[in-house]
């Protein structure tokens, strides 16, 4: 009895170690599905590769919140800054924190546009029973985490007039497990067209493409609205106008 | 055996996922983008879909359990069927004309007779915008004319060479000078001023003076 006990003991320990390694390996095999919920799938006209914001000073304010830590806000502001600099804008950015004044108050030269971005989590669901089942099946059954986020964008002129106010919502469903990753990797390789791939970093890339395109569009809309409301005071050499038809046919 | 029991317990979660209208391993991303989805509370979802969403239990506080529903509807016009700018403008037309009519209504007197026209590169879209704005003004109790003030060909020729901001001002002055608009009449013009934008601007012409509203 003792002998069988001593010889049997290393085997379960080995299996446990193997299983643990497999779980760790499999948990890194995630498939994240991104779904635009509100506004992110809206058509965009502006081409972010063109100099849409020449001679425009922009102040970006990425405002941290409960679900939006200051470190994430700084990363977002840095990326948005690059986005608008690439389109010709002069960009300043800040992450307002408690007790710190805004650059808007003490800036010598007021920005033409001030963009505020806020983010918050709308929904989180992690299916604890599936997590247990996933562990018991060595992740053949995936764990599922379903999250939805909201990004609120407000653009004002230097005087504080609200030019554009919009809310975007995105959903991310993250499946973790060796089974779901393997199946999707095979589907990506053999069945799905490249644009429909799910493995890798496609969810993040798809969301970034949608989000930055929408923010660029909102910024163009805000800039033009500002021009109109200020009576076209700014020089507008790049404004292309459709020919007026003083009575539109039915 | 325990695994089987836990598997049975997990079935409702898996069944929920199978019924998810928006996500599917075999649905393309383009198809998912043609759904319009929004998260609502379970109570709101029950009001809208009483047969599909059960009433929230009064014993469960929403603070303790974050239960909500994802409501998805397929888009009537699929992404890519219309030019991007037309789609962006038409899909938010109701909200846009509502905002415009609200501001315009505050500018005129209660007895002002409104003439409405829209200027857009595609005449079919222009017509839709104008009809939507007229309808909204009527619904909010304003007097609206079907007639659109017209200018003489000579005026149009002169205006063709003017920058946009001057065109509306001059057209407005000419409307009044030519008696195309009377003392108690106003013209609401809705337009886009830049091919890169996806929003509508509006201005009002009253007594020969043009004023941009948004």
Descriptive report:
- The complex is a heterodimer of chains A (about 250) and B (about 210).
- Chain A has helices at about 1-10, 10-25, 70-85, 105, 130-135, 180-190, 200-230, and strands at about 30-40, 55-65, 90-95, 115-125, 145-155, 160-175.
- With about 250 residues, chain A is an alpha/beta fold.
- Chain A has a single domain, classed as Double Stranded RNA Binding Domain (2-Layer Sandwich).
- Chain A has a six-stranded mixed β-sheet.
- In chain A, strand 5 and strand 6 form a beta hairpin.
- The longest helix of chain A is centred in the C-terminal third of the chain and has 28 residues, at about 200-230.
- The relative contact order of chain A is 0.17.
- With about 210 residues, chain B is α/β, with parallel strands linked by helices.
- In chain B, strand 3 (about 115-120), helix 6 and strand 4 (about 145) form a beta-alpha-beta unit.
- In chain B, helix 5 crosses helix 6.
- The longest helix of chain B is centred in the N-terminal third of the chain and has 17 residues, at about 1-20.
- At the A-B interface, strand 1, strand 4, helix 5, strand 6 and helix 6 of A face helix 1, helix 2, strand 1, helix 4 and strand 3 of B.
